[in-house]
Specification:
heterodimer, A: alpha/beta, Glucose Oxidase, domain 1, Enzyme I, Chain A, domain 2, TIM Barrel, 3 domains, 8-stranded mixed sheet, 8-stranded parallel β-barrel, 24 helices, 16 strands, globular, B: alpha+beta, Histidine-containing Protein, Chain: A, 4-stranded antiparallel sheet, 3 helices
Chain lengths: 604, 88
């Protein structure tokens, strides 16, 4: 057996299974049986994807000719010829007709086979030419795959997905039945892939260096998402150990779920709203199962990841409505699209940004596309006629943006009134407090907004200047940093001075070490991935508000992360009962022989 | 039917662009064109086929032409292959 490899615990749980290696930009090809009457339509779909690929190449040819001259563009002439070659075109069509399989699967088999043959050529230069075949293969497959993205829903049997990194749109379509766990080289606890893994209840380990070189598709791999460890080719003893950990983990989950229907109220009777962050319609069910009181954050852009274009107002309205009706009488906080950053794929043709998290995203994109924004606002307003809805704007950095957004909201209301469509006139409008500038302006913004919700994932990365997806600096991403506590306190106080409700919808809400500090500072609501709710509820039900207040005061007096963490541990100790002995970082106790030594960690 | 065995002269072998040139040239003729190397036999009018031969510098391929203009086609193709394809 290979030794244990350490990474970042990104989503709790245990899994043992076959690895499925996903290379950067790899396109997972769908494999589908066709009904006889679908065959000709599939052949035509193949032809039109070839045509689109040819057009793309033509455009490239022209561009390169202009910039580099004809010589540079000549290779694209070869690509064009490949797309006209009967060994490719006729063979694929024949394959579709004879094997009754979809175009992507047949084409991939043909091109992949030729690529592999050529890449084995003894002559190195010729072997390199297999890249041309690969290039053409990808180009056509991208045309055939909806949204041009790899589709994790097409996995054929349950596997542990191993990748350099996973984009949100890649994880967006995954079928939780087929994914046992995620292991990635990049990413941290708060990357979107990690958030998604947690909300689906799939274990994940991120930041595992060079894992894609250490594992092959089909290798056995054991994943411990609770303490962030991975074992490649585990031996029998190790597999047994993982299976037993899995059972213990399931038992712990069952214990926590007993709290589901109990209120989140402190021992001295103060209630804290616990709600759920969701990305997909299925999230509602999961939220209700884990006892959420409403949806504290609906990330609307996830509903449409992988779609070729943004949905119409009517489509959005019907999607939102379904969720709102399911959650009523509790409310749903709908966040307008937070596109950009690392969630590409919905708004077409966005220029490549050097620093997307500081770039064109969220409210900035919405304000620049008033029509798209208006559609969404009208859909949300129409939904508000049928159940309790609140609206929240992401990435507000100052008063101007809030006022502009509210102005467009007013136009949306006027247009609906003119058309005689019902909506909630008093739809509450909130702000995501996730940019340090907004926190500094909290008193001004609180006067203009109906409520505030602190988005800690971005707030922390912007405040501490830490890219949460960069494994080299991820250790600096600290929720208990005094600078973060001060900003949170400032926002809560500013909101309450204006009589406004203040919630939190970042991952920090789900950190049991932060719970007492946060409710002690007076936060009205905590919203998080549904499956994390019971644990936080357990902490709330185990303390008094007076205790929490003392904890918060103590924590705010600390000068260092270590100091805050010490205070948090002291107050929280025992609050999770005997279920979790080491709060914060979960830790399975590995037999000494299997533990990674410090040297090995460095080596890794 | 005419068959002729020739040696690849250009230094980088029959890679993508020479293969393209070969196929484009073959396509100008009406006759059937096949190319063989060891036990692989492919259409001389298919770029993928020619590339699959992975015929490096110094390797020997057999060209076969059959049809009305097979003699002319053979002459042009062998001249092409034994030249250095003008440029790589």
């Amino acid at each position: 057996m290979d030794r244990m490899i350490s990474g970042i615990a990104a989503s709790p749980g245990f899994a043992v299974g076959e690895a499925h290696l996903l290379h950067r930009g790899e396109i997972l090809v769908e494999e589908r049986k066709l009904e006889p009457d679908e065959v000709e339509a599939e052949v035509r779909r193949f032809e039109s994807s070839l045509e689109k690929a040819r057009e793309e190449i033509e455009a490239l040819q022209e561009k390169i000719t202009n910039t580099m001259g004809e010589e540079g563009a000549r290779i694209f002439g070869v690509h064009q010829m490949i797309l006209h070659d009967p060994m490719v075109v006729e063979a694929t069509k024949e394959g579709i007709r004879q094997s009754l399989r979809n175009a992507g699967a047949v084409f991939d088999e043909i091109m992949g086979g030729m690529r592999d043959t050529l890449s084995e050529a003894a002559d190195e230069y010729l072997a390199q030419r297999s890249l041309d075949i690969e290039d053409v293969r990808r180009r056509v497959l991208m045309q055939l795959a909806p949204g041009g993205r790899l589709l994790l829903r097409d996995l054929r049997r349950p596997v542990v997905v191993v990748a350099e990194e996973l984009t949100p749109s890649e994880t967006a379509h995954l079928d939780p039945e087929k994914v046992l766990a995620f292991v990635t080289e990049a990413g941290g606890r708060t990357s979107h892939a990690a958030i998604m893994a947690r909300s689906l209840g799939v274990p994940a380990v991120a930041g595992v260096s060079r894992i894609t070189e250490r594992v092959r598709t089909g290798s056995l791999i054991a994943v411990d998402g609770t303490s962030g460890q991975v074992a490649v080719n585990p031996d029998e003893y190790m597999i047994k150990f993982f299976e037993s950990q899995k059972a213990i983990f399931a038992e712990l989950e069952r214990e926590l779920l007993k709290l589901k229907n109990l209120p989140a109220v402190t021992l001295d009777g103060r209630e804290v709203e616990l709600s759920a962050n969701i990305e997909f319609p299925e999230g509602v069910e999961s939220a209700l199962n884990y006892g959420a009181r409403g949806i504290g954050l609906l990330r609307t852009e996830y509903l449409y990841l992988g779609c070729e274009e943004l949905p119409s107002e009517d489509k959005q309205y019907s999607d939102y409505l379904k969720m709102v009706e399911q959650v009523a009488p509790d409310s749903v906080i709908i966040r307008t699209f937070d596109l950009g950053g690392d969630k590409v794929g919905v708004v077409p043709a966005t220029p490549l940004e050097r620093n997307p998290f500081l770039g064109w995203r969220a409210i900035r994109v919405s304000l620049a596309h008033p029509k798209v924004f208006m559609n969404q606002l009208r859909a949300i307003l129409r939904t508000s006629a049928h159940g309790p809805v609140k609206l929240i704007f992401p990435m507000i950095s100052g008063l101007e943006e809030l006022m502009q957004a509210k102005e467009i909201l007013n136009q949306a209301k006027e247009s609906l009134s003119r058309e005689g469509m019902p909506f909630d006139e008093d739809l509450p409008v909130g702000i995501m407090m996730e940019i340090p500038a907004a926190c500094a302006m909290a008193d001004i913004l609180a006067a203009e907004a109906d409520f505030l919700s602190i988005g800690t994932n971005d707030l922390i990365q912007y405040s501490l200047a830490v890219d949460r997806g960069n494994a080299q600096v991820a250790y600096l991403y600290q929720e208990l940093h005094p600078a973060i506590l001060r900003q949170v306190k400032m926002v809560i106080d500013a909101g309450h001075r204006h009589g406004k409700w203040v919630g939190m919808c970042g991952e920090m809400s789900a950190n049991p070490l932060a719970t007492m500090i946060l409710i002690g500072m007076g936060l009205d609501e905590l919203s998080m991935s549904p499956e994390l709710l019971p644990e936080i509820k357990k902490v709330i039900r185990s303390c008094t508000h007076a205790e929490a207040k003392a904890c918060a005061d103590d924590a705010l007096n600390q000068n260092t992360v270590e100091g805050v963490t010490g205070v948090a541990r002291r107050y929280t100790e025992g609050k999770l009962g005997e279920l979790v002995t080491d709060v914060g970082e979960g830790a399975a106790v590995y037999p000494p022989l299997l533990q990674t030594t410090e040297e090995e960690k460095e080596d890794a | 039917m005419i068959r002729r065995t020739v040696t690849i002269k250009n230094t980088l072998g029959l890679h993508a662009r020479p293969a393209a040139l070969f196929v484009q040239t073959a396509a100008r003729f009406k006759c059937d064109v096949f190319v063989e190397r060891d036990d692989i036999r492919v259409s001389g009018k298919s770029i993928m086929g020619i590339m699959m031969l992975a015929a490096e510098h110094g390797s020997r391929i057999t060209i076969e032409t059959e049809g009305r203009d097979d003699q002319e086609c053979m002459d042009v193709l062998t001249a092409l292959v034994t030249s250095d394809f003008e440029a790589d």
